Amino acid sequence: MRKIWAWGALLFGILYFTLPLVGMTNFSLKMRRGEYSFDAYAKVFGDPRFQETFTYSVAQALFTIVFGILLVVPTAYWVRLKLPRLRPYIEFVTLLPLVIPAIVIVFGYIRLYNTSSWLPLTGSAFGTDILLMFGYATLALPYMYRAVDTGLRTIDVATLTEAAQSLGAGWATILARIILPNALVAVLSGAFLTFAIVIGEFTMAALLNKPAFGPYMQLLGANRAYEPAALAVIAFGITWGCLGLIQLVSRFQKSAPPKA
């Protein structure tokens, strides 16, 4: 009886998640009357705004990933090595972006960094780009920190640090050549999650008036019929591609020997 309920729950879950996707994909292929075609996808890929916004979001995602790694890896390493008592408080701080809405964060940024403030980042396009990257890093912080912290938990940080110091390595060398390679798979998992978050984010990019992929999806959805469905399928494919890469690197982590 338990197996029947388990299979029933599994079947319900599969149908719940796949039927909307199948319906959306089917609708996106019906742009040409009476037959299936990829016209909607061709229009999306041929739209200069798609290329502009997607390129901008990919660049922002890469900068956000680099900034997140530089911020999170040394912090998580230092907390695990020297400040384990502060770990619950650090975890609490990293969870705050999950309970504070993005619109509140971005309005705080605009209030703090407007043109009349001591640091007028919103007064230039470059400054707004930096502000948006900080916002993306804040939104991705819970996922990046937990991924890195989980990776550091699987290695003996204290022993590796003592061994490296006994050979004369400094803190920068230990982080770059010992800790980061051993936690690389966990860092990559956080990086892929960050990429997926940045690609689909709407609120911050729209309120900071930046040409990102999220606002483009919203704008297309308000004015077209078939192209938004095609764009949603493309965004869904990007997200699942990132999740697939996480699974791939996780399997690589299980089979790879630790580096000393």
TrEMBL record:
Residue span(s) of domain ABC transmembrane type-1: 50-247
Native organism: Rhizobium fredii (Sinorhizobium fredii)
Family (UniProt): Belongs to the binding-protein-dependent transport system permease family.
Superkingdom of the source species: Bacteria
Positions in coiled-coil regions: none
Membrane-topology descriptor: Multi-pass membrane protein
Record InterPro entries: MetI-like, MetI-like_sf
One Pfam family named in its UniProt record: BPD_transp_1
Bilayer-spanning residue ranges: 7-29, 54-77, 89-112, 124-145, 183-208, 228-249
Subcellular location, record wording: Cell inner membrane; Cell membrane
Major localization listed first in the record, in broad terms: membrane
Gene Ontology biological-process entries: transmembrane transport
Xref: CDD domains: TM_PBP2 (cd06261)
One Gene Ontology cellular component annotation held by this UniProt entry: plasma membrane
Record key words, sorted: Cell inner membrane, Cell membrane, Membrane, Transmembrane, Transmembrane helix, Transport
Protein name: ABC transporter permease
